[in-house]
Every structure is written in structure tokens, then in C-alpha cells.
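Progress against Task 2.4 (sequence-to-structure conversion) is shown through the following example record, which the project officer requested during the mid-term review.
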Amino acid sequence: MNRTISLRHLRCFVEVAESGSFTTAATRLFVTQSALTATIQQFEEAVGLKLFDRNTRRVAMTPEAVRFKAEADKILREFDAAISDLEAIAQSQKGHVRIAAAASAIYQFLVQSIVAFREEYPAVSFTLRDAGAQQVEQLVVDGELDFAIASRYKGFDELDYVPLLSDTFGIVCRPDNPLAKGKGPLKWTDLPSEGFVAFTQDTGIGTILRTQGPAWPGFDNCQFEISSSTSLLAVLTEGGGFSIVPALAGKVAGFETLAFRELESPVLKREVCLITRRLRSLSPTAQRLLRVLLQTIHGQTLPEGVVAAAIDPV
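C-alpha cells generated for the chain above:
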């Protein structure tokens, strides 16, 4: 490894790559143009590759530089995140926590946890994203999030999945739908193959149903696909039909106007997990938030069909 290369070289490389100009990059980095040029030349000499093609109008990356830039961005992002964690300790937890979660988790316990946490740590700020399962895992892998609360999608080796709760799948529909009549669970064989509204394959719910669900004809005859519970609520309320969701998703805001009945024969469950980067410690701020989150989950009455996992505080 060439030990003459430093973060300063990477920052200069990224700034020139993004601005396409040594003059603009030097201004943004608060250095002279000659100093910036010398730094890039040092970098090129150290790695033995030309990184930029220069002309009178613009600076362009070479093919080798284009391939390397994503790695440089990742190194700088992870370094800055690590320094931010240290600064949070030095500043009495004046930090920022980045989270993504399934919509049902946000509604049921995550927002309550953040509100309770901010009563004790009002200086901490948050970014909360409602993203699909496929995107959530990649965001955690890339270091864009401190943690996520969602179901397992691909199961990356770089991630740890700690179960927080499980919930049972059932049908959700308008009260005037024939499936809403009666009490107790429905069997999969009771479901019609018409009128089914499915979740897309890039969602956690859609993946579980397609990979773990029984061989039900409705999966092949689906005429309507949606990618969020918000879209599902609108489709079912206005257009009728029915969908299959886990119990927690069937209790989010707005769904109280719809009927939910569990499915059996077979019973299908979803596991909602805390997703974190393997071998990377959470910041003290994120750890405190997770303690509050676990207290919130175990301290409330969960909807029927939802069971909290036995887990020790973080």
C-alpha cells in the first residue's frame, strides 16, 4: 500500500471530479489552484495512473478515475461518519441519526420513540426515510443510514439482522367486501383469484408473499400492483378488491376504515428486524435511541397478530 496517499488527496480528487474545474475545486477547498494541482499530481504519481484529462475548457476524468470515484466517495463518507460519531460524544450527543423503516413500523412505534427520545436529548436531529426493502438494505450497506427497521430482503453478508417483532399475514379489504364477513381467520383456499391487489417485487411484503407464500392462483392472476401502503389504501378504498398484508401493516393510519382477517392453512409470518452494518458500532446516540425504541415496543399493546421478540437492550 502506498502510504503517501492521504484523505487530502482523496478530497481533492473528488472535488475536481465533481466540479470539472481546478479553479472551482480550489475555491471550494479553500486552497490555491497551484497547491491543488500539485496535490493531484502527487496522487497520480503515487498510483501510477493519469486521473484527469485537461483542456482549456474543462477537466474530465479518465476511465480509471471514473471507476475509482465511487470507492473514494465511500471512503470519505465512512470516515466523515466515524468523525461525526466522535463529535457527538464531545458535544454531549448533539448528533444526527439517520433511519429508514417500513411504514408500519414508523406508525406503530418509531415516531413515538423519537418523540420520547427528544424529550431528553432535544439537540439531536433525525432523518427518517420510508423506503422499500430493497433500497433500505443497500442504504445501510453504503453507510447512508445508522440503522433500518424492515424485513429481510436479500440478506447481505455485510449486515446484521436482529428480530424485533413478527406479525401474521391476513387479508385487508373494505367492510362491504364479502371477505370481511364473518369472524376468525380465513383459509387461503377461501380467497377468490379475482380482485387481488399485490405489492411489487421490490417491497418486503411482495418478496415474502412470492417466496414464502403458498401456491395460490391469485399471485398469477393479479391485475394491480402497488409499492406502498399509502397507494394500497387509496386503491382499496376507491376501487375495492383486497390485498394480503402483515398484521402491523394492516393497522397503519387510515386502515382503521378497512377490515383485516388473518390467513391460515398455512399461517404466514413476517419478521421485522433491526438492520445494521456488521462490524461497525452504532454511535452512542443511536444506541440510546434503540433503547427507547425497545422500551416503546415492549411497553405498548401491540395489534392482534403482532408479537414482540425477546431482545436485550442495546
